Amino acid sequence: MKKITNLLFNDFTNDNRVLKISRSLQNNGYDVTLVTTHFDKELPKEEIIEGFKVKRFNVGRVKILPLNLILFWIVVIKNFRKENIFHCNDLYALPPAYIIKKFFNKKAKIVYDCHEHETEARIYIGKPVIKFFAKMFEKVMIKEADKVITVSESIADDYVKIYGIEKPSLVLNCPVYRVEKKEDLFREKFNIPKDKILFLYHGAYLKGRGVETLVNIFKELGDRDDKFVLILLIYGEGLESIKEEIKGSKNIFWHEKVGLDEYMRYISSVDWGIFLLENTCKSYNYSLANKLFDYMIARVPVIVSDLKEMGNFVNKYKVGHIIPDSYSDEDIVKLLKKVSQEETEYYQSQLDLVAKRYKWEEQEKVLLKIYNSV
User: Fold this and answer.
1) What predicted TM-score, i.e. pTM, was given to this entire model?
2) Which of 168, 210, 232, 368 minimizes the number of CB atoms within 10 Å of its CB?
3) Which regions in the chain score pLDDT beneath 70?
4) Would you list the DSSP string of 221-237?
5) Interatomic CA distance for residues 332 and 250, integer angstroms
6) What is the distance between the terminal CA atoms of the chain, rounded to a whole angstrom?
7) In 3-state terms, what secondary structure has residue 210?
């Protein structure tokens, strides 16, 4: 049985992609150990999750990113330098595998899994020096990767262009296929009448993801007609300001984060998904976000920004509306006011077709083909 050391620079509490990859490899004859950080001391140092092992390591009591990273790399090199296959989740996890292959174990194999356009992410905005060094490190280390995986066609093409590597394989962020039973969890919790149309934004609360814009738009809608309801299923730092801003609103509600085992039930409890990601960096423009595929599996039509990958997807498969860059908040309000229950039902047959095509079972085939060749 081939052993895979899966490297992840976080505590592994809400990373659905890492869960799916680890589970798929474990279920198909590989022995997977997921190596993560241990910032949250309430989490166990070791546990078994869906058959694969999780080992968490202390990388400092205080979150100071450069120090934590270096400590994580040292831990990996010290404890796993004799292992032969490394799955590196994003650029943070690549250096220890690279060092092991170059200096400790020439036979080691590396699969580099780019969760986004790694050096074009939002974290590098306004940090040209850090971005320059990140690009230089990635340019050197990616040459030692035996296989590279990305999450959209645009990112794959750009990696070929800037690094001159073989085109990365696409393993999209699709969920496991299911016919999700329609539920009404949000209506039941917040006592929302049946005739209201529910829009959902779910995920981490980060700048550039359009949450503030959505709040402003739905506050304006609420002043005119509270038929349109926004649910914010969000988590993260800085959330208190948003919760304070929507306090007392009749058409905007916040819900705490839910577990991976139940969050699809919540997604299926809305009428529309809405994701106004701002085009602030190439990574966002090239993003084919997992939440887009979550909505497809739940048979929920979407409203998205006119970014390259997501806009093309929605336009190609006719599963919702695209908001052009030139639109103002007022234009978006006008578009939302045209949305009806009848239109929501209109998209169901197309959503069924897309859900059957874009499912994890198809992505798993690509993943296993990659590992069978390593």
Assistant:
1) 0.91
2) 368
3) none
4) HHHH-TTEEEEEEEEST
5) 20
6) 14
7) coil
